Amino acid sequence: MENLPIEITNAHRAEVLTQALPYIQKYYGKIIVVKYGGNAMINEHLKEQVMEDIVLLHLIGVKVVLVHGGGPEITDMLKKIGKESVFLNGLRVTDKETAEIVQMVLAGKINKSLVNLLEIKGGDAVGLSGLDGHMIEAEMKDESLGYVGKITKVDVKPITDLLEKGYIPVVSTIGCDNEGNVYNINADTAAAYIAGKMGAERLLTMTDIAGILRDKDDPSSIIPCIDIAEARELFENGIISGGMIPKVECCIEAIEHGVHRVTILDGRVPHALLIEMLTDEGAGTMVIKDKNDDK
């Protein structure tokens, strides 16, 4: 039998909005950093929903900073020019030519398309890259990786200036040094540094999985909340493994830099940002400093 759409009455709509009120009050005027990438960026329908969520949060008084990567699009562009992507320990080996492509794709194509989409949805957005105002300074992480950057300094003044003027800053994660070299920066790491430096209330990092799972093959085994001590225990037990390791390390790094709460969010869930921010249910795994101190 075909699933019929559920009719939502005006009274139900009003009830939903009323239930969101405590969360709107809680986050009004607070800084929230959203790290955006993965499947939610590739799927056009999901991308529109993420932008709608960000605009809605912006319009109810939340100061949203959008930090984005763009690995799949970089890979596609390299393929178009006949250049093979090589990865070492999950990081893209980046020679001088690849660094130029990274800059072109992240700071140009992706950044400006996200700004445009936010504007279409009714937000006021301005694009930035880590090169603007030397916002993200970096050095070579490892010679074998080429121009993959290790962050040495973050200056968030360009971001705070835009927030004060009522804009949604959209930040592409490329870095630079004083010699003019451009570096490919891991977006999770950049988001953690930016959120920490800004004293953000929350960092929401969107990914392609449900969150931290006790059993990687069972999506229902999601762990809703862990603290740093529990996370380290899960590392030791091998429950957090593979590509999840750097993501959780970035969560811990953000908390140690002063972010109150970090959530690994399932970017495949429609309107995951609103579910996480404005409902009791939440969507993903929240990482906090210490459950004993959490109020």
Helical content stands at 40-55%
What's the total helix number?
10
CATH architecture: 3-Layer(aba) Sandwich
CATH class descriptor name = Alpha Beta
Q: How much is the radius of gyration in Å?
A: 19 Å
Strand order of the largest sheet: 5-8-2-1-11-13-14-12
Would you tell me the structural class of the helices and strands? alpha/beta
Q: What is the string of helix and strand elements?
A: HEHHEHEEHEEEHEEEHEEHHEHE
| Average pLDDT taken over every residue | 88
Q: What is the fold-level CATH name, i.e. the topology?
A: Carbamate kinase
What is the 3D form? globular
The structural domain count equals 1
Assign the CATH superfamily: Acetylglutamate kinase-like
Strand content: 15-25%
Largest sheet: 8 strands, mixed
* Total number of beta strands: 14
Runs in which pLDDT lies below 50 for 5 or more consecutive residues are none
Measured distance between first and last alpha carbons: 47 Å
Short descriptors:
single chain; 295 residues; alpha/beta; Carbamate kinase; eight-stranded mixed sheet; two-stranded antiparallel ribbon; 10 helices; globular
How would you describe this protein?
α4 (71-80) packs across α5 and α7 packs parallel to α9. The radius of gyration is 19 Å and the shape is globular. By secondary structure, the protein is an alpha/beta fold. The longest helix has 25 residues, at 96-120. It is 41% helix and 21% strand. It has one domain: 3-Layer(aba) Sandwich (Carbamate kinase), CATH 3.40.1160. A hairpin with a 5-residue loop joins β9 (174-176) and β10. The protein has an 8-stranded mixed beta sheet with strand order 5-8-2-1-11-13-14-12, sandwiched between helices.
